[in-house]
Amino acid sequence: xxPDFRIGEVAPRLYGSFIxxxxxxxxxxxxxxxxxxxxxxxxxxxxxxxxxxxxxxxVRYPGGNFVSGYDWEDGVGPKEERPRRLDLAWRTVETNxxxxxxxxxxxxxxxxxxxMAVNLGTRGVDAARNLVEYCxxxxxxxxxxxxxxxxxxxxHGFKVWCLGNEMDGPWQIGQKTAEEYGxxxxxxxxxxxxxxxxxxLVACGSSNSSMPTFTEWERTVLEHTYDHVEYVSLHTxxxxxxxxLATFLARSLDMDEFIKAVISTxxxxxxxxxxxxxxxxxxxxWNVWYHSLAADRELQPWSVAPPQGExxxxxxxxxxxxxxxxxxxxxxxxxxxxxxxxxxxxxxPIMTQTGGPAWRQTIFWPFLHASAYGRGTALNLVVESPRYxxxxxxxxxxxxxVATLNDEDGxxxxxxxxxxxxxxxSLEGDLRSFVGYEVVEHLVLEHENPxxxxxxxxxxxxxPHRGGDAAVLMSGELTALLPKLSWNVIRLSRPSTG
Length: 498
Ligand code: AHR
What we know:
The protein has eleven helices and 23 strands. The protein is an alpha/beta fold. The strands form six sheets. The protein has an eight-stranded parallel beta barrel, surrounded by six helices. Helix 3 crosses helix 4. It starts with 5 loop residues before the first strand and ends in a 5-residue tail after the last strand.
């Protein structure tokens, strides 16, 4: 490790998340006026506390697939006048009890900014520019005065806006070709920035890297939008349906390839345009998602807030999430926004029972650790690791790792996953460039059962402990034994100068 081997500054927005109008994410998740912990606006206090613990700086809203059929006007103004609408994306009934103004209030209480998405599925330039006016214009115009009439005096000032969602997907309401979307996104972007020039915009990349048009989509969309947007989006979800842990744990290598391909495509368009501008990446949906897919197919349509997407995460899922976090950090120079999808109940680190408790899922822990300690500058480690053979990924390193250096207090954090299912891995780190550094703590997330979960009855079955054995030797070598199948956070402090 060396402080000069810098990947880039870790954008605080790397630890963003996502709340969509789907399942019990909003109703029964963040919002439940009848809940014993509900505040004056009907938000669950227990959920807010857990969200604050995660220090999520930005939350994407209101979708997701949902946004492609959403009329934002339905969700503002007096609640009793708001319509019940069919949501075609998730085949539910949307009551509109929560809309833009309520979500902005919730986000403020959670200590987060809102990353707002506009509907480019069924709607277009007009609805998008009006929503920016409603949210960000101070007063003296139709939509800013409408907001004020709704009791919201000061503009929300949302900084980051998504130009639609997964517009290449056949499942999307109003799916588009890259040409159609590129033109529409470019025109919407211009109008939105004419309303508020300070906003930053995210163009939709491919829905995932297996889409047949992957990279061609990005190229075409960016050729249309390059001058008007700051980011292109990436989405990915991993699964382990065949119960093949060795392959599942290697999926972050796929994420790494995905990121590199999108960076190359952005830079190809930059070169082609002879532009001086760099487009950054917004990895605004990422997670493990598969446990709930079969149950979701059994749900009856047109109910309000059904239990959709309620993955109960295992310990092995937490390791994959850990590897994905490390992968994001390894690209901190270009990924300036990332959103763990999602935040509450639906494929989420936080789970609730409607009317009951809220608890931390297994994946809560690596996210919490990265968000708490993975700030500052990401460091490019020179890593040698034993490998295992995998039919899909070839040679997979047993050690997945990255480090971050906190520029304010000089503290250094090493994040490491041991993918070995049988044996601990002996870590030897060259710390000679960090003279006098000492281990503050070595957090470990491990479990003898890869399928272990946290539930309402047993919320702490999978939880980290501080019993790791990391130490710095006189020679300047960092040593630690990383238990088999484990997520590790080794925190070091610089020597005090007094
Ligand atoms: O996060 C759940 C869904 O996954 C989102 O609505 C969509 O964008 C993606 O396909």
